[in-house]
Amino acid sequence: MIRLVKRPMPSKFWSWTTPLVAVIATMIAGGLLFAILGKNPVEAIRVIFWDPLFGPNADYFRSQLLVKAAPLILIACGLAVGFRAGIWNIGAEGQYIIGAIFGASLALAVYPAESWFLFPAMVVLGAIGGLLWGLIPALLKVVFGTSEILVSLMLVYVAQNLLAYMAFGPLKNPEGYGFPGSRNLQGYPSAFNDELMAGTGVHWGVLAALGAVVAIYVLMQRHIAGFRIRVAGEAPRAARYAGVVPARLIVFCLCLSGALAGMAGLFEVSGPSGQITDSFNVGYGYTAIIVAFLGRLHPVGILLAGLLMALTYIGGDMAQLMLGLPSAAIQVFQGMLLFFLLGFDLLTNYRIRIGGARA
Amino acid sequence: MIIGGIDIITLISMLMVASTPVLLAATGELVAEKSGVLNLGVEGMMITGAVAGFATAVSTGSPVLGFVGGALAGAAMAMLFAILTQVFLSNQTATGLALTLFGLGLSALIGKPFEGVRPPATGKVPFGPLSDIPVLGRILFSHDWVVYLSLLLVAVTWAFLKFTRAGLILRAVGENHDAAHALGYRVIAVRCAALAFGGALAGLGGAYLSLIRVPQWTEGMTAGAGWIALAIVVFASWRPERALIGAYLFGGITALQLQLQAAGYAIPVHLLSMAPYVLTIVVLVLLSVVHRRGVQAAPAALGRSFHAAS
Amino acid sequence: MNRRSFLTSTAATAVVAASGLPARAADPLKVGFIYVGPVGDMGWSYQHDQARLAAQQEYGDRIVTSYIENVPEGPDAERALTQLALQGNQLIFATSFGFMDATVNVAKKFPNVKFEHATGYKQAENLATYDARFYEGRAIQGTIAGRMTKTNKIGYIGSFPIPEVVQGINAVYIHAKKVNPDVEIKVVWAYTWFDPAKEADAAAALIAEGCDFVLQHTDSTAPQAKAQEAGNVFTFGQASDMIAFAPKPRVSSTIDHWDPYYIKRIGEALDGTWKPEATWGGIGTGMVGIGEISDAVPAEVKEEALALKDRIASGEYHPFTGPLKKQDGSEWLAEGATPEDGELAGMNFFVEGVSGELPK
């Protein structure tokens, strides 16, 4: 009989090895899928995982890897803090949207005035927008005990409808010939979150994501607040003795993750995306939840997981182009990757015992 | 019966059909959540059910078999989720999101040969003279059998959770899995069964979309219905009878705003579409206030993994 | 420098990969496409892909085509377009309005690559735009609906309040009114291009309001199914022919035919005569197809509709010919006048007689 025994401490060895095992398992299962679809599996895997990094034009694709991964990493870093504390914000998508609306509204309101402090002000507003949207579930939880999981999720739908209202109404480009969507901020120098060095893909959002990784690392590993957060998540009762005030912790975690998600939305809407449209949000807030867990709620893990997710998107597009794989096959492939990564994580926290002997 | 230019009877009869897919999916998810598992993959299970149901119905020529196929496919997807979250103890939120991604892709691959095909038709249930009764005839006796099945399933679920011993065990597992385990109940088996039921109903809801409501197979045809089902479960505060109200409310708002437009009213569509979600939050808050010192509305163990320590 | 050298090498491998054919043709033209939906959407992206296949058929191994589907509008579009350009595609079609700014950006970065953007209004040295005059098909639908309606109410499921849809609504109304002065048009905005459940509800709402014609500017067949269920309600196929619902409720259709345009433009790129133009083709150029008018339509109405089709195709008649007034009663077009294409392309008002307000 096979039994699972919880490890007293997560295994260091397995926490580094399981992602590799999972990726290899995905390559095998995905290879099978591609073979069934009549494609050369080895080539498909190479196109997805190797070509964007080291193939032709890798310079460009590496820069795009950063662009695609940055919002995921930024959002996931904030979420991970809450998840560690047992506070489940799954509404980052909504906070991302509201942050973008807040920041972009400022730019669209003062257009075409140029000023150096416009962009910083937008970033601050973006963070405030996300923070406020995160504050709603926090306050409802603190005051009424309402589940933050469900309120934050409901608020995503509210935000999406608000976004559509804005894109078709107040924020619509007055020079857009009646088409929905705002002015493109890429054409507004003071508001444009441009590449800082041409060709690298690095914009302010990428720097912010890296900054978040460092900051969250310091917070969680080197700061008393991080200790309290971890205790709250692992042993809620003991946490009170460690000086944790649950209400404060809830507000802190939801506001932090909301603010980071809001900033991510602002960096995206003022940079790569450029416009407020009813569909400019492409699910980063949800994908970031997956990234947070793939990264084991650890900032460095999240950095790697974000880059891995970005790689499958970019490599997936390559596979469509080079091999004619349908995008559906890429989605299935991504789904498998996530299943394997999430499933094999078991080995980090549990030992597998074979035989009936009691431990 | 016409109020403010809106034919209420038509509206009600319309929203009963409109709400059937989400009602089925929400009822299934409700049972899964009652057992303490949060499966965010409803959309993925629904669309897999939609394609499998469609493929089965077209291949066999029988819509009934199609619905069976859709339910089985939805249940199969749910079992994948169950293996990952119950056996491999993966995080439920992340796994559910991955399941949706996987389902959307898989369904598109399976559905390729069925694009542009028409499924065998599902007729209305012949109620004879009953359907000629004024008002009630249109509302109650003018639908296909799946509408009645969905209502029956809501009733059965309600009775199961409220009156049966198995329902009690299921709720116990969802409230406190450690205590349920200590009492000798098999937590994982119960949750797997609940998940399978949830998946089957989601699959049935998906099949209703592809076989009756559209009826055709197109990639991504669920268009977010699974997410609405999740909202309905919350709105219903995990009670099947309220899920019925929730589904009709969510379906009803869409139907109503379109009817208002058709009747010539200029309405803020997006703000109105937002309303059910805001209302759901209000309901959640009210429930939390009511249950402040008593039983929580949400199953206490919702979203938490169970591992028997010994 | 080195960009040039690897382009040639990847081009050769991609030929083999994409088509499975041996790389014998010296230097086939590489043509890339990005689609906003999956090619299996049976609507917008499907029609573009059908046209891609037709072009491939036409030119055989003189061209190699590839595509990326399901590309969200926004940053991913810009990356996908760059990917196509880096892959050595010399002619790239961006097939959704929302790709506009991304296409402009990428076109700037690759001055030697030719770009084509569907339904937009921004051109450049190496960026052409193309669109179809779907309103021409709507004029024919309006004529049929105006003649056949018993309730004198025509329903229209609008996707988004954008010029293309507004043109469609106006064209239907003008032509229905011409043959039936008592006709009314009711518009419902679904705010989606594709959501079967919502489209079904929208159709049901219009039918409940007494409409016996439901026209749709959305891509699913759900309204067709609703109409069939309701009995004596008629519809028109949208984007694709939706022939599965013929002869009733679907009595005809407006089909997106991009084939003639793609074949023409790829041909021009092959022989070096490609120019950045703004093309707005209609029935005459074959870009707007009128699906077969079914037997549910009385013969004399069918004849009238076909005659109208011929007059539009030959350019003899413009569906927006004055005298026409705007909804608020102000003059729009004088007797015999037709609008400039630029004005028409930005149409943001209803014509006189259409009820309901155009959402702002």
Automatic annotation (TrEMBL), chain A:
It is found in: Cell membrane. The lineage of its organism: Bacteria, Pseudomonadati, Pseudomonadota, Alphaproteobacteria, Rhodobacterales. The chain crosses the membrane at residues 68-87, 94-111, 117-140, 149-168, 202-220, 241-264, 284-311, 323-344. This is ABC transporter permease. Its main location: membrane. The keyword Phosphoprotein does not apply. It is a multi-pass membrane protein. One of its GO terms (molecular function) is transmembrane transporter activity. It holds the Pfam family BPD_transp_2. The keyword Flavoprotein does not apply. Keywords: Cell membrane, Membrane, Transmembrane, Transmembrane helix. InterPro entries: ABC_transp_permease. GO terms for cellular component: plasma membrane.
TrEMBL record, chain B:
It is a multi-pass membrane protein. It is found in: Cell membrane. One of its GO terms (cellular component) is plasma membrane. InterPro entries: ABC_transp_permease. The chain crosses the membrane at residues 6-25, 37-58, 64-84, 96-114, 145-163, 183-209, 221-238, 245-267, 273-290. Keywords: Cell membrane, Membrane, Transmembrane, Transmembrane helix. One of its GO terms (molecular function) is transmembrane transporter activity. Coiled coil: none annotated. It holds the Pfam family BPD_transp_2. It comes from the Bacteria. This is ABC transporter permease.
TrEMBL record, chain C:
GO terms for cellular component: plasma membrane. Gene3D superfamilies: 3.40.50.2300. CDD domains: PBP1_BMP-like. InterPro entries: ABC-Purine-Binding, PnrA-like, TAT_signal. It comes from the Bacteria. Residues 1-25 form the signal peptide. The keyword Signal applies. Residues 30-315 form the ABC transporter substrate-binding protein PnrA-like domain. Pfam families: Bmp. Keywords: Signal. This is BMP family ABC transporter substrate-binding protein.
